[in-house]
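User: Predict the complex.
Assistant: Input components as received:
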Amino acid sequence: MKSSIRILAVAAAATLAVSAYAGGHNLVTPDINDPVTLRINIMQNVGASAGLVSAMMKGTIPFEPLAAQAALVTINTAALGLSGLFPAGMPENMRSSAAPAIWTDAAGFKAAIAKFIADSDDAKLFPPESVEELRDAFSVLGGNCKACHKAFRIKR
Ligand code: HEC
């Protein structure tokens, strides 16, 4: 009983985090034939997961190991799926914030994805059992967001 109330509370908080996130951004309809729409949706899911993790780290919602693990696994799933979603030669999409460096420095971009996979895999293999462990895991994993965005994302 107690744990189901806790799960409900976490689910409610997660919904809030997601809707707060989605509210500030344009939603893009995923189109199976358009990798740009797929990667934007994947990144938005990563953003929502990171939002849940940071709310736990800030203490605005209670630490819940299974919810933290689900968020980290979602980020790992995104990392695993990224490499095929940036084909060269697509028509320019004004909704995309992908930087030209993705194609001019393809090796660098691939290395950034490989690091994102490795760091999120660690978080998956050693699921955090406390908020301190979550902080440790995300201090490494979270660095990927900033580093890759700085090199491979432009402002629109
Ligand atoms: C290996 C590179 C890479 C990593 C690592 C990465 N991102 Fe991204 N991210 C991108 C690229 C490229 C885009 C732009 C995609 C596009 O618009 O085509 C993007 C876009 C986004 C967006 C904007 C989606 C939208 O609505 O347009 C969010 C939010 C985001 N990333 C969150 C994160 C978070 C949080 C992390 C870390 C947990 C992260 N990303 C890690 C490459 C990365």
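The two ends are 48 Å apart (CA to CA).
Let me know if you want any component modeled separately.
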